[in-house]
Amino acid sequence: MRTTQTLDLNARTIIDAGIAEAERIGNPMNIAVVDAGGCLLAFARMDDAWRGSVDIAIGKAWTARAFDVETKALAKLAQPGADFYGIHASNDGKVMIFAGGVPIKEGETVIGAVGVSGGTGKQDQGVAEAAAQAFARG
To answer: Which of 27, 58, 92, 135 could join 119 via S-S bond, C-beta 3.0 to 4.6 A?
Structure first.
């Protein structure tokens, strides 16, 4: 059985899986992996990925870990009139409520997260899911 310390050893595998999916769909991405504490473990900016998306990818990863939820789901809860409306302004504006942040789990325990930015919400989400699944297969 793996321990939670293995996430740092697998961060490059997670990044590589995200890069492979981004290449498959033909869209360069920024990909970030954070640990259980939300600290950045690994980051990759593919050639021609939007520079403005670097902090967004890192923020999505942090948000997915901070709330243990996909940012895509949090976005729905953060709409006007919903329970978490305004959450994006919390934590000094660090919370990202765009699709593309996915918790990484070991069993039922969240041990980190991956965040992806540089495409549409659907593209970011798909690349993040592919990256997170690389740990599950690990």
So the answer is: 27
- Claim: this prediction has a pTM higher than 0.90: yes
109 three-class SS: strand
Per DSSP, helices labelled H in the chain are: 6-25, 54-67, 71-77, 121-137
For the chain, list the domains and their CATH numbers.
6-137 (3.30.450.150)
Residue 136 CA to residue 109 CA, distance in Å, equals 12
Provide the token pair at 90. Answer: 């919390």
How do residues 16-61 score in pLDDT, each as one tens digit? 999 999 999 999 999 999 999 999 999 999 999 999 999 999 999 9
Q: Is 105 exposed, middle or buried (0-12, 13-18, 19+ CB in 10 A)?
A: middle
Chain centroid, CA 35 distance in Å = 11
> Which residues lie across from 114 on neighbouring strands?
33, 102
What is the side-by-side order of every strand in the sheet holding 101-106? 40-45, 30-35, 109-117, 101-106
